Automatic annotation (TrEMBL):
It comes from Methylomarinum roseum. Pfam families: VWA_3. The chain crosses the membrane at residues 573-595. Gene3D superfamilies: von Willebrand factor, type A domain. This is VWA domain-containing protein. Keywords: Membrane, Signal, Transmembrane, Transmembrane helix. Residues 1-24 form the signal peptide.
């Protein structure tokens, strides 16, 4: 293994304290790529004893629109390609459904870094609609040496996230147990604009993968009300997903003409995928009119349609800072062109159904402008937490629906940016929220990434309670991505490692001269502050060249040993947290010593404690 270069104690303390059926398509599937990484480590025997991952992945496979590029990977100590990347078609789905049965729980380790690195190196092509869905029940675990796992975890944060950002890959993460490294998974999703979910049990997997599917591949849908939905003559095909509870009666679908369709119905233009927990029904060239579902009402049921008449809306970031003004714009398109005809738009009513984290509901009509755009401004009214936005267009003879979910996060730090044109420099400034953070207990480093050059880590300088960094003006056509690693303490003394959105500096950004107090972005604290969270001041282009790592040896492949080793390593993580709890005081006091020294001392204490326990 290439040994880590000497790091300041700032880095060491951060490391140690952080603590079959063609689904109705949206017409844009060909521009999307989805890679799915499934954890098959031994702990899944405990957290997914019924291997619900198989049925959940099969649902995702069936939902994928034709033309989407997709691949499925399994990872534990190594990463294996279950099905190579290809454009989804009937043959791809048939093979994928067979291979999904190979999902197991026999792996010994959990190499999240190696899994993401493998996908980046061998699979994902550059593009604007790339998505990576990561499902795991554990934390980075590549060796019996806890420090090697901690370093691997840090490389995910400091090295891989910038690469994912540059390649515009959104990472959507699913934590399948309370043992999962929620902080790391949150950082992956937050830093790349993806979505994160945490499950209490594997029983929730199917609906959670549906959420990730909708995030990665937004679909044209029509609303369902009281188990009824309206199909118009612009719909060429629809796919109805109906979730079922155990012991539920067989699902039936009633057409506008009263015809009853069931799993036993044989029609050339009807396909029916049946699972213990859901039915997926696809109808080509469907009859126009009101369709009815004979099944128990479930709010997660949905009707996806293939149509040229679409409801579209402005992109909303997955994570939005509390107090930030938010405006939603919706519009209808026909064959890709915005519909602006007044005689048509006069018949259209677009409403927004808002559901907050406490299940509070409200409804408001979007206001139509003369340009064919319907708008609604939230101002700064949305409170902290997750919000569901259902946008429904009613044109009397047709209906369309869009579903968006956003996470409103607490403002702990604000990033200000202003341009010094005379010095051809860009100044970034971190301002703490002094109602939450003690300004005297704040330290940060900026990780500056420019194209394919090695990343540079720069300590930010404190000035009057704020942290500042001056960067050279980017060259023409150049884009600078700045990530931050922050250590802070709340006013009550609780340590925290806030996550910031990356700051992008390019020519368009320089054209806007922000005054020093203009907020550019803000951050949210992770809900947890568990183990190993660090920065690496030395970067390697290891995505292409490979990172040297030592993988634990001396294990057998027998399943019975996997859980025992993982349980032991989980205990080591807990010990490590306790061993380094005092390290934050050194960091926040501003002392800077070599990282190797802190690692050596910590490792020795760690070994001594483990020895006493044996």
């Amino acid at each position: 293994m290439i040994k880590a270069k000497a790091r300041a104690i700032f880095l060491g303390c951060l490391l140690l304290c952080g603590a079959t059926n063609a689904t109705a398509q949206n017409g844009q599937a060909g521009g999307y790529e989805v890679d799915v990484l499934i954890d098959v480590s031994g702990s899944m025997k405990r957290n997914d004893p019924g291997n619900k991952r198989i049925s959940a992945v099969k649902l995702l496979i069936n939902l994928l629109p034709d033309g989407t590029r997709a691949a499925i990977w399994l990872f534990a100590q190594n990463t294996h390609l279950l099905l190579k990347t290809a454009a989804v078609d009937k043959q791809w789905k048939q093979r994928a459904l067979v291979l999904a049965d190979k999902i197991h729980s026999r792996g010994l380790l959990t190499d999240i870094e190696g899994a993401i690195q493998t996908v980046l190196r061998e699979d994902i092509a550059p593009g604007s609609s790339n998505n990576l869905i990561l499902l795991t029940d554990g934390r980075v675990d590549i060796s019996d040496d806890i420090m090697q796992s901690a370093e691997s975890r840090q490389r995910v944060i400091s090295d891989l996230i910038p690469v994912l950002q540059r390649q515009r890959i959104k990472v959507h993460t699913i934590a399948l147990s309370d043992q999962a490294d929620r902080e790391l998974l949150d950082k992956l999703s937050f830093g790349t604009g993806g979505w994160a979910e945490a499950l209490e049990s594997a029983e929730q997997l199917q609906k959670t993968l549906l959420t990730m599917f909708n995030k990665a591949l937004p679909q044209d849908t029509v609303p369902i009300k009281d188990n009824r939905f309206l199909i118009d003559d612009a719909v060429k095909e629809f796919s109805l997903l109906v979730f079922k509870k155990a012991g539920a009666a067989p699902t039936r679908l009633i057409g506008p003409n009263g015809e009853k369709l069931s799993r036993q119905t044989r029609r050339k233009k009807l396909s029916w995928v049946h699972d213990q927990h859901y039915d997926l029904i696809t109808v080509q060239q469907p009859r126009v009119g009101l369709w009815r579902i004979e099944a128990e009402v479930d709010p997660d049921n949905q009707v996806m349609v293939m149509t040229d008449l679409k409801l579209q809306a402005s992109d909303l970031a997955a994570h939005i800072v509390e107090g930030e003004e938010l405006e939603l714009t919706a519009y209808l398109t026909e064959q890709g062109e915005v519909i602006r005809r007044d005689d048509f738009l006069q018949l259209i009513n677009i409403v927004l159904l808002h559901v907050d984290e406490m299940n509070g509901k409200s409804e408001v009509a979007l206001q139509r402008g003369q340009d064919g755009l319907f708008k609604h401004s939230f101002g700064a009214a949305l409170g902290k937490g997750r919000h569901t936005l259902k946008i429904v267009a009613d044109g009397k003879s047709f209906r369309r629906k869009l579903l968006k979910t956003i996470d409103i996060v607490e403002s702990v730090l604000t990033v200000h940016r202003f341009v010094d044109a005379d010095r051809r420099a860009v100044v970034l400034e971190l301002q703490p929220n002094d109602k939450i953070i003690d300004p005297a207990m704040l330290a940060a480093q900026a990780i500056v990434n420019v194209a394919d050059k090695p990343a540079e880590t720069i300590a930010m300088q404190k000035q009057q309670g704020r942290l500042r960094l001056s960067l050279d003006w980017p060259a023409k056509g150049e884009k600078i991505i700045v990530n931050f690693a922050v250590m802070a303490k709340k006013l009550d003394g609780t340590p925290m490692t806030p996550s910031l959105k990356p700051v992008i500096i390019d020519e368009p950004a320089l054209q806007s001269r922000h005054p020093p107090d203009a907020a550019l972005a803000a951050v949210a604290p992770p809900e947890r502050n568990e183990e190993a969270d660090a920065l690496s001041s030395h970067r390697r282009d290891y995505v292409n060249g490979g990172a040297d790592k030592i993988v634990g040896s001396g294990h057998t492949i027998e399943e019975s040993h996997a859980d025992a080793s993982e349980t032991t390593r989980q205990g080591e993580w807990t010990l490590l947290i306790g061993l380094v709890a005092g390290g934050n005081l050194l960091l926040l006091g501003g002392a800077f010593l070599g990282y190797r020294l802190i690692r050596k001392r910590t490792t020795n204490k760690h070994a001594q404690l483990l020895g006493r326990l044996k």
